[in-house]
């Protein structure tokens, strides 16, 4: 992903690939939270926090997003990337085996490989609403399998699983004695709020759930995430590793998050209003052009548009060079299904959507 986007200087292309919804403005935050945010910052402690993270904030996270997690089961991180690194370093050793679904956010695979593990990928079924290929998944487990990685609501396709699917995944991990790492950064962005499923760590002691402020809460400028797990031995390993990295989360971010998190439902609804409007516009464009196809997303703030005529990288490259519009091609998500990721969460996208679907790359 970084290699592809680095071809163009920052700010020279219009970003149409972001997985986070349109970032909230200070005015929107003030309206939603009802507090003086400048005063919150002014009153913040400027000293170090504990390595595990601000106690009050951890308590809020456990209460707001979980059923069976306590504040002691939560470790705060400096964003999701640090969370991924901490989990892989705490769990994996050379020659361990990991299973991950594709398409995927590339670091979920690459960071595991960098920790010395071998990774087997299990492609989601593109022609069946990007659902899990259960027969293929069950064949991937072996005696060295240490970790199964999942990401639902899903990036980049916007697919989702049911509570029964999650239970089956937990049962498989229990059967094979491995861990479940659940990337839940888009939880709260289910397009039908009735299909929200429990956090994986709530009912499984061998599961880790990860959240972050940047995605479902549309606050990427706040560099704060969290890991939740009921296994205290693993959490202590994570805390030890974290003490060699960020040491602790920003005290300013922690103070601000305490005012934001109690209003999560309102923020999610604000984001869903944008997402559902964009999805409606995209559906019209996809349905009227046989060069494109998709499975209509059920969750998250992105869609994966499949290409029937062009290769994903060729199309994205041509779009960037000729229209100055940036989408991300299939290969950065480790899938061979030709296509690209497009954002559903940004405002003022309709004209840009039209340009994308009208684009005819001149590819020899």
Tell me what you see in this structure:
The chain has about 375 residues and is an alpha/beta fold. It has two domains: about 1-25 and about 265-355, Aspartate Aminotransferase, domain 1, CATH 3.90.1150.10; about 35-260, Type I PLP-dependent aspartate aminotransferase-like (Major domain) (Aspartate Aminotransferase, domain 2). Helices cover about 35% and strands about 15% of the residues. It has helices at about 1-5, 25-35, 35-40, 55-65, 80-90, 105-115, 135-140, 165-175, 230-240, 250-260, 265-285, 310-325, 350-360; strands at about 15, 75, 95-100, 120-125, 145-150, 180-185, 205-210, 225-230, 290-295, 300-305, 325, 330, 340-345. The strands form three sheets. It has a seven-stranded mixed β-sheet, with helices on both faces. A four-stranded antiparallel β-sheet has the order 9-10-13-12, with helices on one face. The chain has a two-stranded parallel ribbon with strand order 1-11. Helix 11 (about 265-285) runs parallel beside helix 13 (about 350-360). The relative contact order is 0.19.
CATH superfamily of the largest domain: Type I PLP-dependent aspartate aminotransferase-like (Major domain)
Q: Tell me the name of the CATH class of the largest domain.
A: Alpha Beta
**Shape verdict:** globular
Helix fraction bin = 25-40%
Indicate how many domains the architecture comprises.
2
- Tally of helical segments: 13
CATH topology of the largest domain: Aspartate Aminotransferase, domain 2
The largest sheet has its strands arranged as: 2-8-7-6-5-3-4
């Amino acid at each position: 992903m970084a290699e592809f986007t680095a071809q163009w200087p920052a700010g020279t292309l219009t970003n149409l690939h972001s997985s986070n919804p349109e970032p909230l403005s200070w005015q929107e935050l003030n309206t939603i939270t009802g507090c003086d945010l400048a005063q919150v910052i002014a009153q913040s402690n400027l000293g170090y926090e504990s390595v595990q993270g601000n106690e009050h904030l951890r308590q809020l996270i456990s209460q707001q997003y979980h059923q069976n997690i306590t504040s002691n089961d939560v470790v705060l991180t400096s964003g999701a990337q640090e969370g991924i690194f901490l989990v892989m370093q705490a769990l994996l050793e050379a020659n361990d085996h990991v299973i991950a679904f594709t398409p995927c956010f590339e670091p979920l695979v690459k960071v595991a490989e960098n920790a010395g593990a071998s990774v087997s990928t299990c492609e989601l079924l593109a022609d069946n609403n990007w659902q899990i290929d259960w027969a293929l998944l069950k064949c991937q487990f072996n005696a060295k399998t240490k970790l199964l990685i999942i990401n639902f609501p899903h990036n980049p396709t916007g697919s989702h699983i049911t509570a029964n699917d999650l239970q089956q995944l937990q049962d498989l991990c229990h059967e094979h004695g491995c861990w479940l790492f659940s990337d839940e950064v888009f939880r709260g962005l289910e397009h039908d709020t009735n299909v929200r499923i429990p956090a994986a760590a709530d009912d499984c002691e061998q599961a880790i759930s990860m959240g972050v402020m940047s995605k479902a809460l549309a606050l990427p400028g706040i560099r704060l995430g969290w890991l939740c797990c009921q296994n205290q031995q693993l959490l202590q390993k994570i805390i030890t590793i974290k003490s060699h990295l960020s040491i602790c989360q920003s005290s300013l971010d922690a103070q601000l998050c305490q005012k934001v998190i109690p209003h999560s439902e309102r923020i999610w609804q604000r984001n869903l209003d944008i997402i559902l409007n964009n999805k409606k516009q995209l559906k019209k464009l996809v349905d009227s052009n046989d060069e494109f196809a998709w499975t209509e997303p059920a969750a998250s703030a992105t869609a994966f548009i499949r290409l029937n005529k062009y290769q994903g990288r060729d199309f994205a490259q041509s779009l960037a060079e000729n229209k100055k519009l940036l989408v991300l091609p299939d290969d950065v998500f480790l899938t061979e299904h030709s296509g690209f990721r497009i954002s559903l969460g940004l405002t003022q996208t309709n004209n840009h959507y039209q340009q994308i679907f009208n684009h005819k790359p001149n590819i020899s």
